[in-house]
């Protein structure tokens, strides 16, 4: 069930998109994080000092190049002489399963939506999302067609992040985000890793690799309230980006998918192949990383094909244990031995 939360007369415009509601000035460190998550189109974003402009906001350098650069984000359809905010309303959509500290997740999500709407004068909707925890749509004011803008957020508090690292859920979730069709992937980490019951090192390493090697922009918040503000500031910055670039790059940019197209694409991602399922199962084995699992399924796409290979070496346990190690340099001796014990042995005494 969908529910849209907005204040009376809550229609974003260029002015409020840039500077937000009075008194709602983004902290400098948060502005820097958000600026890094936005594309460098027609120049770079600069953070103007509050003393110079009256508020902390993003401005584009006056450079008319990169109009066909790959960094340009998808745009909703554009009619000639049509301003972005005249044609579209930007709506932040939050997943209704999000946990914001209340026993009822739906009630908590609606309360957060109300708070963001009233504080930042933006439209917020709560509904079930097929992937991610937050997206933005551009809803045509006349036709009511909804186009999914090129931003998506996956939100993790440090406790959940630590848990998902241990059971490898976070790799699967990131893979779905990377294949959902949206370009700007934002990983929002909530809380202090140093206060987590899990491994502080593994959480910090996960954040580092997610940003540096996997194409995500990692934003960090201190808690629920800070996350709420970050959603508000992100919404204002996204409105500002599309308002600034809509007329100049819409003709050369990709067209945003409709919400129905986005949802259909995400549903297809959920239909895992047998090999993908086998790889996820392998990743539960000690010493088997994602790279190791992918290397195994490259040679043996199903557990049956792997079992058949072991059967060809029946009676030579040493060769069976080393079979995968000898197939690929990516697979170490411990992982090779553990997979053999799980598939062909008794599954006991797996070495961590």
TrEMBL record:
Interacts with EME1. It comes from Panicum hallii. It is an enzyme of class 3 (hydrolase). Belongs to the XPF family. Residues 91-193 form the ERCC4 domain. Its main location: nucleus. It holds the Pfam family ERCC4. This is Crossover junction endonuclease MUS81. GO terms for molecular function: 3'-flap endonuclease activity; crossover junction DNA endonuclease activity; DNA binding; metal ion binding.
């Amino acid at each position: 069930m969908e529910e849209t939360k907005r204040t009376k007369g809550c229609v974003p415009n260029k002015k409020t998109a840039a500077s937000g509601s009075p008194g709602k000035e983004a902290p400098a460190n948060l502005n820097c994080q958000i600026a890094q998550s936005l594309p460098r189109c027609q120049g770079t974003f600069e953070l103007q000092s509050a003393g110079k402009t009256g508020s902390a906001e993003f401005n584009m350098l006056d450079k008319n190049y990169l109009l066909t650069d790959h960094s340009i984000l998808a745009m909703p359809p554009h009619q000639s002489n049509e301003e972005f905010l005249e044609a579209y309303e930007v709506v932040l959509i939050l997943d209704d399963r999000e946990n914001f500290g209340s026993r009822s997740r739906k009630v908590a999500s609606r309360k957060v939506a109300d708070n963001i709407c009233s504080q930042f004068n933006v439209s917020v909707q709560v509904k079930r999302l097929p992937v991610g925890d937050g997206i933005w749509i551009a809803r045509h004011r006349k036709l009511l067609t909804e186009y999914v803008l090129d931003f998506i957020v996956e939100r993790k508090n440090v406790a959940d992040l630590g848990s998902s690292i241990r059971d490898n859920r976070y790799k699967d979730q990131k893979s779905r985000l990377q294949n959902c069709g949206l370009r700007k992937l934002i990983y929002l980490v909530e809380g202090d890793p140093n206060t987590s019951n899990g491994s502080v090192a593994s959480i910090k390493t996960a954040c580092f690799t997610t940003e540096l090697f996997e194409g995500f922009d990692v934003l960090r918040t201190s808690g629920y309230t800070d996350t709420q503000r970050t959603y508000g500031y992100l919404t204002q910055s996204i409105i500002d980006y599309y308002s600034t670039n809509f007329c100049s790059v819409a003709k050369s940019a990709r067209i945003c998918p409709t919400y129905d197209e986005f949802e259909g694409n995400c549903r297809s991602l959920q239909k895992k192949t047998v090999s993908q399922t086998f790889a996820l199962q392998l990743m539960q084995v000690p010493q088997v990383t994602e790279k190791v699992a992918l290397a195994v399924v490259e040679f043996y796409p199903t557990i049956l094909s792997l079992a058949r290979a072991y059967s060809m070496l029946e009676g030579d346990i040493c060769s069976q244990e080393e079979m995968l190690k000898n197939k690929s340099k990516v697979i170490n001796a411990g992982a090779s031995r553990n997979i053999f014990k799980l598939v062909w042995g008794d599954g006991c005494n797996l070495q961590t």
